[in-house]
Amino acid sequence: MDCIFCAIIKKQIPADVVFENDRIAAFRDTNPQAPVHILIVPKKHITSLDTIDDADQAVLGEIQIVARDIARRERIAEIGYRLVVNCGIAAGQTVRHVHYHLLGGRKLLWPPG
Ligand code: 5GP
Ligand code: ZN
């Protein structure tokens, strides 16, 4: 399977990894859209939110705990931040391995484009 995030998880290509455990990896986005832009992914390959199943519930919940902790460490928690998942073509998902964007460090507009 040809998946760039699986390659990052397996350390086959480099990334600025800010957190890792047995189930989850988090690394800085190479094209950041905010002063802090970190991608948080399950190590298990899941294509998108549309293909998650019941067995993924724990890891998807844990990702939000990881996001909370990274946001505190990156000092964006106090002013506020955003955690977003793009699912599918219309939402602009370009990498077909489910990932949560943690964005912060500036005022974020709503609604997004
Ligand atoms: P999507 O558009 O699928 O929601 O987000 C994919 C994100 O992955 C984009 O923000 C893009 O900049 C980022 N990205 C794509 N390729 C790489 C890569 O090789 N390394 C890292 N760190 N980020 C990547
Ligand atoms: Zn993958």
What is the element layout, followed by pairings?
Layout: H1 4-9, E1 17-20, E2 24-28, E3 36-42, H2 57-73, E4 81-84, E5 100-104
Antiparallel strand pairs: 1-2, 2-3, 3-5, 4-5
This protein binds guanosine-5'-monophosphate and zinc ion.
CATH homologous superfamily designation:
HIT-like
Fraction of residues in helices?
10-25%
Overall SS class = alpha+beta
**Roughly what fraction of the amino acids lie in strands?**
15-25%
Uncertain spans:
none
User: Which H/E pattern describes the elements?
Assistant: HEEEHEE
Largest sheet: 5 strands, antiparallel
DSSP summary, beta strand count? 5
Bound molecules: guanosine-5'-monophosphate, zinc ion
Please state the average pLDDT score. Answer: 98
In CATH, the architecture is: 2-Layer Sandwich
Strand order of the largest sheet: 1-2-3-5-4
Which term fits the overall shape? globular
Rg over C-alpha atoms, rounded to the nearest angstrom: 14 Å
Number of domains: 1
The top level CATH class name: Alpha Beta
Question: What is the fold named in CATH at topology level?
Answer: HIT family, subunit A
Our measurement of the CA-to-CA distance between the termini, rounded to an integer number of angstroms, reads 31 Å
Number of helices: 2
* Oligomer class: single chain
In words, what does this structure look like?
The protein is of the alpha+beta class and 113 residues long. The protein has a single domain (4-104), classed as HIT family, subunit A, CATH 3.30.428.10. It has two helices and five strands, in the order H-E-E-E-H-E-E. Strands 1-2-3-5-4 form a five-stranded antiparallel beta sheet, with helices on one face. A hairpin with a 3-residue loop joins strand 1 (17-20) and strand 2 (24-28). It is globular, with a radius of gyration of 14 Å. The site of zinc ion has 5 residues, from helix 1.
